[in-house]
Design goal:
InterPro entries: Methyltransf_11 (IPR013216), SAM-dependent_MTases_sf (IPR029063). This protein is an alpha/beta fold and 219 residues long. The chain has a single domain (12-218), classed as 3-Layer(aba) Sandwich (Rossmann fold), CATH 3.40.50. The chain contains seven helices and seven strands; from the N terminus they run ααβαβαββαβααββ. It has helices at residues 12-24, 26-41, 57-65, 78-90, 129-139, 157-182, 187-195; strands spanning 46-51, 69-75, 97-101, 114-120, 140-151, 203-209, 212-218. The protein starts with 11 loop residues before the first helix and ends with a strand.
């Protein structure tokens, strides 16, 4: 299924709706948990940048899990950032989870500022992936890692079947048809994006994990 539309970010008027879905949908919650667990296991300490942070659920859960980390989330939507800031304040974690309005192609940080960069379910929005990854490379420390997670649109039938068994017909229909129609990429699209990256990463690759595609880089 082809994507119906492509926009750089979620419009402010839709931010509250997206935040509610991300907070309540078991499929999305499980993806967020997988990201939080994996990132928490793969960084010793330091600063993390979350690109396309949305309502900030991933950064907040990371700092809940690891009190030696600080996460900065950036998003194009000022409404999303307001929702994330409010959530961090409510959790009393504002000192370690902060949020800014910013574009991935022009990050307001100095060179080699972050130890780790992540992005969850945002990559499909990026209009210029190669340029954005070059900017991410700039703010990443030597030896730092980048983990980018997005929904896979061209999953094998057996994967779709497993999703239906786990989440039931209605939730799997929302994920596999409605959400994925816009918020997803194919393996081919991920490979093409990877091939266009000219930033000097020492390692890069793709992992397919069921309904999720992970792009990874090491500087």
């Amino acid at each position: 299924m082809k994507k119906l539309i492509r926009i750089e970010g979620i419009p402010n008027f839709a931010a509250s709706i997206y935040s509610f879905i991300a907070r309540k949908n078991p499929c999305i919650k499980d993806i967020h948990k997988e990201v939080v667990d994996e990132v928490s296991l793969n960084i010793y300490s330091g600063r993390i940048l979350d690109v396309g942070t949305g309502p900030g659920y991933v950064p907040i859960e990371i700092v809940k899990k690891r009190n030696d980390l600080k996460v900065t989330g950036v998003d194009l939507s000022s409404k999303m950032v307001k929702i994330a800031v409010k959530a961090a304040r409510k959790a009393r974690l504002s000192s370690r989870a902060d949020f800014k309005v910013a574009n991935a192609g022009n990050l307001p940080f100095e060179n080699e500022y972050f130890d780790f960069v992540i992005s969850t379910l945002s990559f499909h929005h990026w209009s210029k992936p190669a340029e954005y990854l070059k900017e991410i490379h700039r703010v990443l420390k030597k030896g730092g890692k980048v983990y980018i997670y997005d929904l896979r649109r061209d999953t094998p039938k057996e994967v779709d079947s497993e999703v239906r068994k786990k989440y039931g017909w209605f939730l799997s229909f929302l994920l596999l048809k409605i959400i994925r129609a816009h918020s997803s990429i194919t393996v081919k699209e991920a490979e093409e994006a990877l091939s266009r990256v000219d930033a000097d990463f020492s390692k890069k690759g793709i992992e397919s994990r069921g309904v999720v595609i992970k792009l990874y880089f090491i500087k």
